[in-house]
Write a sequence for this structure.
């Protein structure tokens, strides 16, 4: 028998009503199966109403450490606020979230000082953390940012997991109130950690005024972050409420005074030699803003943070401990 | 045991893997191109290869060339037909040389290493990584294998997999060029190597003087070696065309009576070997090559539309030096360097240009110059590279968010890598409106890349 192509057989068959309906049913079923298969294969992004904060109080509202060695200053700051054991429980997963936004060297002060990050990782492991994750969404090319900032090297030496965030591993943010950040994709690892340690660097930012702890949380947001720039104050306040960092350690060892956030000119860098630690991100930011001679409430994210009851900006009422290391 | 054939196959496999590895790591890609006399005539490695060819013959084609290895695999089932047009490759080589003297470089069209490198960099590696990545996402996200597998995925992502899936919108054309060469091998064994390859032509001319040669002691006239020879180098009378033999060693084992040997005794030296170009042919070549000058692209009076890689000065010089190997596109960490299709004429096809919408030029990076085998993109230190101007940004105030909608944005200002910020703010008190300081802008394209306005960006970099 002569073999025929499949299309050549069609004209011989009459299409009946039953046959037609059957074909439709098979097609519809196939399409339904296909879409569910696709969802099964590549998953859907879950939604989250935010991280459950630990609400651990420190011994002081703020600890400000002055000194020469950033590693020792960080250790001193954490000890003075009550020790890392207070924040990191045994066998817990910790996220240390530095600012690795730019392809710059540590001296250029665009990224968090690697020794501050290293000190925090050391202390986390000493208090019995099972795993310390370190990542940031970078603005420049990721591998070069990780490399040139010096953070990847030092964090890997200390035993932390340094990796690049994946844009497919996100959850959609959900808010109880109306928010411009509704539905924004946030990296899953930022939410699925027992302790969130926010390690920003204090520097100039043209749009937000300064970039400190609250602005640093942009680094756990996926999606097109250029769109976050309009009404950045509200968005950062809501993002802080969503993430609820347990501990903020601000690196103000080297500070970028102008041409932030990327900098690059050594003339814009000032050595302030300060490390600030605190639980309340708004208070931390307010104190850091004062260091930079800015009125905290003139900065959009701080004023919105106060408005949304995320923290207080009143430095005069806060319990601030100043020590030298 | 076909020991010599086995050794040849292992060597082919080794060099193919080495080639892919070099391109994959985008690190020491230069080695192969420095060993290519068609691309870099005076480099140490290619002189060594030429000396080795003088001793051994056309070993490069049979034992090293990655394109040759792929063609061999494609041609397993193919027949070996003797087409008497093997002189074509000398004509092609002649054209390349004549054009080189005229100041136009067309070696990139025919160089086998370049063709393979382009295929591997623009087609093979991106698709391989894409598929591997999808499999991992399926396993991790779809089947919920988070903990151990995810760590492994992250590890290979920061090492071999690379964190970006490269894509080249027009890579289909490079693929079809490569596929055409391979599909010819399905019909006739080593079609490309016999008839087209100009690098093979160079080696063929040299290996006529080589020391190692083939000797036939006994022969029963079974013609098996002649029929099987993948280069059709063996003649009816069992002598052979020395310049065609690629030392594949098949004939040694095809012979029943074990009469074929390769030894270190050269036969009588013929100064003008048969099969090479005659005086008449040479004159024909010379007189006909001017017809191809239409290949040249008219540039006078036309505005340059393409942003070239950092440090590239003259367009003419750039296109003449560029062999279109795709190394820079493979090395560019942002995937911003893309092959040109027809925007700069036939002469400019597949040369790199920067597409800021896809990727910008990383300020603190000089990888493209480092991986360029011919110096078309000059190798610059980081400090020198940061001074290079590639273009000039221009803000379209008709669509820019702060200028039209009076809402805050200045993403471009935030990302501008120039320490003094080439994007300045027009009005400090109200909504911050950006404009470009022409004296500072280096045209890296990051502002265009990060601009949130869609579908057309409000910042555009033009050369």
């Amino acid at each position: 028998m002569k073999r025929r192509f499949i299309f050549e057989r069609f004209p011989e068959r009459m299409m009946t009503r039953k046959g037609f309906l059957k074909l439709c049913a098979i097609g519809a079923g196939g399409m339904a199966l296909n879409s569910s298969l696709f969802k099964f294969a590549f998953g859907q992004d879950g939604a989250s109403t935010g991280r459950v904060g630990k609400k651990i109080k420190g011994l002081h509202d703020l600890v400000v450490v002055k000194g020469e060695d950033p590693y020792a200053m960080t250790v001193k700051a954490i000890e003075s606020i009550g020790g890392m054991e207070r924040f990191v429980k045994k066998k817990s997963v910790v996220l240390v979230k530095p600012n690795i936004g730019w392809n710059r060297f540590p001296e250029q002060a665009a990224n968090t000082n690697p020794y501050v990050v290293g000190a925090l990782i050391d202390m986390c492991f000493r208090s019995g953390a099972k795993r310390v994750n370190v990542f940031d969404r970078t603005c420049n090319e990721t591998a070069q940012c990780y490399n040139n900032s010096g953070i990847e090297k030092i964090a890997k030496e200390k035993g932390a997991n340094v990796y690049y965030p994946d844009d497919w591993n996100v959850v959609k943010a959900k808010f109880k109130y109306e928010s411009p950040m509704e539905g924004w994709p946030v990296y899953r690892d930022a939410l699925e950690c027992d302790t969130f340690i926010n390690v920003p660097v204090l520097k100039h930012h043209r749009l937000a005024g300064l970039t400190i702890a609250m602005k640093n949380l942009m680094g756990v947001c996926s999606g097109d972050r250029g769109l976050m720039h309009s009404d950045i104050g509200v968005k950062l306040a809501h993002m802080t409420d969503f993430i609820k960092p347990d501990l903020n350690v601000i690196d103000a060892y080297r500070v970028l005074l102008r041409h932030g956030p990327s900098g690059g000119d050594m003339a814009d860098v000032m050595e302030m030699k300060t490390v600030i630690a605190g639980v309340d991100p708004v208070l931390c930011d307010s104190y850091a803003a004062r260091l930079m001679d800015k009125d905290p409430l003139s900065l959009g994210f701080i004023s919105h943070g106060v408005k949304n009851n995320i923290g207080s900006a009143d430095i005069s009422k806060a319990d601030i401990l100043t020590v030298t290391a | 045991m076909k020991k010599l054939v086995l050794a040849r196959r292992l060597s082919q496999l080794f060099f193919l893997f080495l080639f892919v590895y070099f391109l994959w790591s985008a690190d020491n890609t230069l080695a192969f191109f420095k060993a290519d006399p068609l691309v870099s005539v005076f480099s140490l490695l290619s002189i060594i290869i030429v000396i080795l060819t003088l001793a051994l013959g056309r070993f490069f084609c049979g034992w090293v060339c990655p394109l040759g290895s792929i063609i061999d695999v494609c041609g397993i089932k193919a027949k070996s037909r003797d087409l008497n047009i093997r002189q074509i490759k000398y004509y092609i080589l002649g054209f390349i040389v004549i054009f080189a003297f005229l100041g136009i470089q067309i070696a990139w069209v025919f160089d086998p290493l370049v063709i393979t490198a382009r295929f591997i960099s623009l087609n093979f590696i991106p698709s391989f990584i894409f598929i591997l990545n999808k499999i991992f996402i399926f396993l991790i996200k779809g089947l919920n294998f988070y903990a151990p597998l995810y760590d492994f995925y992250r590890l290979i992502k920061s090492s071999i997999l690379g964190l970006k899936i490269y894509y080249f919108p027009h890579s289909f054309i490079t693929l079809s060029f490569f596929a055409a060469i391979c599909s010819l091998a399905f019909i006739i064994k080593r079609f490309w190597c016999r008839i087209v390859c100009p690098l093979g032509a160079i080696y063929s001319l040299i290996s006529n003087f080589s020391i190692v040669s083939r000797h036939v002691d006994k022969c029963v006239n079974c013609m098996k070696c002649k029929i099987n020879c993948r280069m059709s180098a063996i003649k009816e009378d069992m002598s052979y065309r020395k310049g065609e033999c690629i030392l594949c060693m098949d004939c040694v084992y095809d012979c029943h009576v074990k009469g074929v040997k390769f030894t270190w005794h050269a036969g009588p030296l013929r100064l003008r070997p048969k099969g090479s170009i005659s005086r008449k042919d040479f004159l024909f070549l010379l007189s006909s090559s001017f017809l191809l000058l239409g290949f040249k692209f008219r540039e006078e009076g036309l505005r340059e539309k393409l942003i070239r890689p950092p440090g590239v000065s003259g367009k003419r010089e750039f296109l003449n030096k560029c062999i279109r190997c795709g190394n820079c596109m493979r090395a560019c960490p942002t995937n911003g360097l893309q092959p040109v299709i027809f925007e700069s004429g036939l002469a400019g096809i597949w040369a790199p240009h920067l597409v800021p919408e896809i990727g910008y030029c990383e300020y603190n990076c000089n990888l493209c110059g480092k991986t360029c085998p011919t110096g078309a993109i000059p190798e610059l230190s980081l400090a020198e590279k940061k001074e290079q101007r590639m273009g000039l940004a221009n803000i379209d105030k008709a669509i820019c968010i702060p200028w039209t909608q009076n809402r805050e944005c200045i993403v471009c200002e935030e990302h501008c890598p120039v320490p003094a910020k080439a994007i300045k703010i027009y009005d400090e008190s109200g909504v911050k409106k950006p404009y470009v300081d022409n004296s500072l802008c280096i045209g890296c394209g990051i502002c265009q890349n990060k601009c949130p306005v869609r579908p057309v960006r409000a910042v555009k970099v033009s050369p």
Remarks:
- The radius of gyration of chain A is 25 Å.
- The mean pLDDT of chain A is 89.
- Chain A has eleven helices and 13 strands.
- Residues 17-42 of chain A form the longest helix (26 residues).
